[in-house]
Each structure stands twice: as C-alpha cells, then as structure tokens.
Amino acid sequence: MPYSQRGDQNYLKLYNRRKVLGIFRAQGGMSRVELSRQTGLDKKSITNITKELLDKQQIRFERLEKQKAGRPKEILALNGGHARCIGLDFGGSHITGVILDFAGKVLCSDSVEVNLREPLDPDLFFSICSLMIDNLLLRASLTMADISGIGIAIPGHSVNNGQAVLVENIPCLKNVDIRRYFRKKYQKPVLVGDCSQLMALAELHLGAGRSAESFLVFDLGLGIGCGIVINQALYTGIGGKAGEVGHTIVQKDGPPCSCGRRGCIESLASGWALHATASEYVRLHPEDVLAKTAAPGEGVTIKHLVQAAAQGSEYSARLLKNAGEFIGIGISNAISLLNPPLVVLGGRMLMDNPIVLDAISDTIRRVTIDVIYQDTVISVSSIGANASAIGAALQNMDRIYQMEEEDPSHEKHPQRALAL
Amino acid sequence: MPYSQRGDQNYLKLYNRRKVLGIFRAQGGMSRVELSRQTGLDKKSITNITKELLDKQQIRFERLEKQKAGRPKEILALNGGHARCIGLDFGGSHITGVILDFAGKVLCSDSVEVNLREPLDPDLFFSICSLMIDNLLLRASLTMADISGIGIAIPGHSVNNGQAVLVENIPCLKNVDIRRYFRKKYQKPVLVGDCSQLMALAELHLGAGRSAESFLVFDLGLGIGCGIVINQALYTGIGGKAGEVGHTIVQKDGPPCSCGRRGCIESLASGWALHATASEYVRLHPEDVLAKTAAPGEGVTIKHLVQAAAQGSEYSARLLKNAGEFIGIGISNAISLLNPPLVVLGGRMLMDNPIVLDAISDTIRRVTIDVIYQDTVISVSSIGANASAIGAALQNMDRIYQMEEEDPSHEKHPQRALAL
What we know:
5-stranded mixed sheet; Arc Repressor Mutant, subunit A; disordered C terminus; globular; alpha/beta; homodimer; 3 domains; Nucleotidyltransferase, domain 5; about 425 residues
C-alpha cells in the first residue's frame, strides 16, 4: 500500500540506503560522485551511506580509476561475498540448481533430467535434491555455512510459502510441505515460489527487465505460466497465484485440461498436451517420420517434434505451429489487458524451436490491435534454462536486501520474517 | 519507478502530507490524536502538518466532539470547497456529467441520451456538451470561475491525453483532439481518459475499491472494458491503453469484431454485438416476442432483450445467457492472470439484467480454478451509471492532490504538468 510506512528519519535513511543499493544492483560499480548525481543527494550524505554499506560489507572497494587531473576516483561495487544463496528449480522433466552471490553472479549451476510427471517416492526426490546441493557446494568450494538461504521454484504455487499446490506436472509434490523439508535438513531460511514468477524476478535483476518499468515473462515448457513485474516489483496477486495464463481459456468448450476445465491454453499448446497428442498420432501412424525420430516405447517430446519437422514431417510442423498460435493468442490477450512495454519469452519449449517461436510472434502481431501492439517490445530471454533457479536464489537475496533491522515494515510480512 | 525521488527533507514532508490527505480521503473526518495513531507520527508533527493543510484550505474544522473528560476534540476533514471539478462521460448511447468537490461529494449530475454510434457533426456534439456544462453549473449554483478542471471519459484511449483513438463506438470523435476543444473554450486544465479506467478510479476513491489493495473493474455496455488498480493506484500501461479486455480473444477464428480481428469478447458479447445479432433475428422472425418489444424501425437494444426474455422469448434469454458466458470467460481469464482480491462489475449492460449477471457469475465460478477463484470477491458496483463521469472528475482532483509546488517529480510527468 502506498504511504504505509512511518515517514520519519529512519524511513528516509532506509529509503536512501535501498536506493543506493538498487543503483549498484542495476548498474554495477561506480564512484561516489556518480552516486551523488544519480540520487540527487549531496556528497556528505553519500559518504555517510557508503561508509555504512562498507561497514556492513554489502559493498566493497572495486578499483581506483585514474582521472585526467587530481586524485584517482574510488569505484565502489556490491560485495558478492556478503551473501550466497542456493536456487533450485523443479521442472516436470528436470531439476536445476545454482549458487548465486550478493552481486548477482552465478557461481555454479547443475541440471539433471528426471521425469517428475511419473509417480515418484518423495524421499527419492529429496535425495536427488540433496545430491545436487552437495555437488553445487563442491563446485563452488563452499560449505553450507557460507549459504544464507535456499530458494525453490516449483511449477505451481505454494500455500504459506511452503506447501505445494497446483503442481499437476510434479504429482509426487502435491500438498508436500517443501519448505519444511529443506528448512529442517539445512537449518536455513527457505522460500518456495512459482517458477514463472521467479523467472520474471531473474529477468528483473539480471535480464531484459532491468530497464523496463513493467513487463511480462512467459514461461513455455511442460506447463505454461507467466511472471508479472509492475513498477519494478514482482506482482504475485493476493494469494501469490498471479500468472496462471496457462489456464486462461482461448477456446470455449475446447479440449479437456489437466485442471479439469476445458479450452485452457495448456490443453491446446503446452508441452504435456503436445506429448499426449503426438504420442497418440505416432501409435496410429507408425510410418510417419515422427515415429522414427522417437525411440520405440519412449514418449514423443517437443524435441522429437522439432527434429521430425526439420526432416519433413508435415504433421509435426503443423502441430508446433498450431501450438504457437494458441500461445500467441494467450500472450496477445495479456498484452491487451496490461499494455506492457516489454514481453520476454522464455522456457524450454523455445529452445532451438523456430516454428513455435515464429508462430507465436506472427500471431501476437496479427491478433493484437495495432495501437496496442506498437507499444510492446517482444524479446526472447537471454538468461536461458537456469532462469527459474536463479530467480529462486534471487528471492532469498531480495529478503537479505530488504530485511534490515531498521525496516519498520517487515513485521507486517510474517511470511517473510518467519522464513527460517 | 521505486525510489525515483530525492530522499531529502522535502520528500519526507510531502510523503507525510500526502499520507494525511490520503487518510482523510479514505476514512473521512478525524481528530489529530487519531491521525497520530494512524500515521505513527508524533503529536507535534501532526500539528504542523494539519496547520499547513488548514492554511491551504485543503482541510477544515468539521466539528467538536465531546470527551468523557477534558477538552472536546477537534474533528478535521477535507474541505470540499477547496476545489470542484467537472466530469463528463461520453458513452455510445448517452452523455453524462457531474460536478465533484475536493471531498469527493457529487454536487450534481445530469445525463442525456444521444446515439453517438451514428455519424454526428462534431460541432453539434460539442454544443450538447456545452449545454450540459451550463446546466450542471446552474444546478450547483456555481460559475466556471469555481471550477478547477474538466475531466472527460471516452470509450477508447487518448493520445497525449487529448486526441481520441480506438473510439469505435463514437465515430464522430475519431482522431478529434477533445482536450484542445475544452481547454480553448473554458481555459481550464482538461484531462481525457478511458471510461473503464476512470470507472476504476471512482471505485478506488468512492466505491468498493477503497479497502482493496488491488482490484479490477469490468465496464460492460456497448463496449467492454476493464480498469485495473494495483497497490491502490490506477494502472494504465505504458501507452495508457491497459484494460482492453473487450479485444481479448476467447474463440480462435470466431466472429468478426469492430477492431478488424476475430473472436474478441466484444464480437461475441458486447452491447453492439447483441444489437446487431438481435436486429437481424427480428427481421427474420417478426413473430417472436422480441419483435413486438422493440418499436418498428427502432434497433433492438439490451433493454428490449431483457423485456422480451421476461415475457417468454427463449431466443432473447439464450442470447443474453450466451453473452454472459463469454464475458464470464474473459473475466475469469483476467482473474487467472492477476489473482486480484476484488472484481467489481459495472456498466449499463447489467442494469436490471439478472440473466447476464447470473451467467457471468456462474461462468466465472465454473471456469476458474478453485484455489484461484476462492481468493477473489466478485461484487456489483454500488456507484451506478455516473461512475465514469465521477472518475473523470476525480482524475483532475488527483492532479490537485498530487501537483504541489514542492513535488520534485511533477516535472517528470510533462503530460500532467501541461494539462492546461
């Protein structure tokens, strides 16, 4: 809510410290003179603020920069070593992990393929996660003592920031309190979030969203989701469930969806819908190029569809194009509603998949009213497959940036304050 | 953008003054003690702030309230007479006007039916507006010298806050610079905005939205639009065009729309789509109850459909229900995307129209995923047919609340600063 804080000297101090940290975060290292120019604060205020941030080891001396005349300028920057967070991303087909530092640098990453759409013992699932965390720490030459928090991205939502709901693509996690497990095992603050929202957080701090006031990120994979950033802050909705674009309806009384409804975009164009449709087709048409692309007994995936389309399977090309068109309509609908300056397309479905990407772009242009379309830049994510894992780590890092002892508002966010 | 202002003593002063005005605006009159409690500021700060607001005549002594012991408490409140704004709303079938005071009180209102969907000489149109303004001033015993600004709501968007675009339902205003006309004639600041966005502004300050952090307002009439409030502020998108829910697509390759695309909600369920469909039906079925409801030669309107349905026309009932279902899908899609705590339904289509309202409510419940649906309260606007006109006046009032000489940010919003 606007004007929700007590407008006293503490508030002003916090406002300026956060502003300075935000500038370092968005733009990297700079001198005190440049900080003064960008904040509009006088030299003395900047000297005080930077001294405090240096004392807290949130920033550090980066280097000296020679001047044409006079003393060299001290360039200050975020101190990566101030905090490090682990981010894990549970997709339907993989688990991905990263370790991120306070300056936003990815220290290491890892990924394993696991078919989480099939029933799986949660204990086995958590063992895989533990192995990944051990591996990440080893690669970064760190121990758990160096870690400030663990973030988890799930393809669904969490109740009370822990218990997984709406995770149709990972049935073994349904109603499991993921946070409790990691919190108990590692004794660290743990935050669980929606993978598409966290992908948007990664774009906000490290991707195309750094310079956009507001933007939408579309996460296209086994499921279809959306992350929303408004006024440079993640917008999650009243129950944390914003961005369920996959379950918006683009065809009244269309095919049945995993959510029990009909005609959702996911039922028409998601990874799981394409797998099901294509697998059935292959069963009926064993002579098609597509049938020869997938190994016998193996389900047909998007990768197979892309390969088969490249080898001349008209069916595969048509299926991919059709999916792109429905996704394009869903994205266009979101653009018509929110008139954003930027839309970022991400997710595994787009990797090496020009047919879907072209169909999405063409459809957005075709079905969006011109005067609205012209306001929006459409771009493809430059962060890649680790985006949600990075976002999961960033969510914890944001907590560290935000939760300072002087913050009078954090008592109002018990979820955050009680994250450990 | 967050942290965009210079965090100095001026900023703090402005922050607290706006906070106090916001509390008066949302909650009405109160004592300094209560203000101190709500803002967290000490008695001296509150005394200073209220003195300044009293000096500026933005607030006034409202009454003395007796205490059990000690001196009676002074109750302060917004001073309605500090400013008065005119708001006009141009619908496809009517022109509505109000005069609103600084305290949010509607001093008077007026409405005339005009079919603006037919070609009309812009000069004639503006003459009707002038007559309405004269009439409003007369009723409120005011002259133009008492008016601080004029706000205009149009069913479309405006370029540079003045020139009308996307006004399919008022062809005579297409590309007309409405602001220039009123500014020249009345020599007052003029702001032109989208009627659905302005309806949301009315709900934010005077309706159901007062207590909601974020909400959506659906404006159902000849066209279909949406106003979006996020964090207690109107969200208008990068080009001011947010809320075009009427042109979101719920049926791929559906019927043609006024925007030139296919399958938009407006093409399936708006007032104009129903008029066209029902008029054609009446031509082919002169024996239907519906044909006897509308006068010969007169087009069929929603009012006729509602009357005919009540008199047993199954066709009319089915057409209305069908429209409600498509609108319900569109609203459900917006709920899935934004997970808002509140949705307000408004607009002329809902007046005495239980078939459409029931179909909308039933459809939203049926097609929205339960865990998302449960977060949202669906309510019908209590403000009624003047909502967009009130919002248009409020937009000017917001300018007066926001644009103070100490505001360091107003230079960044040239549109606002140059409104006159």
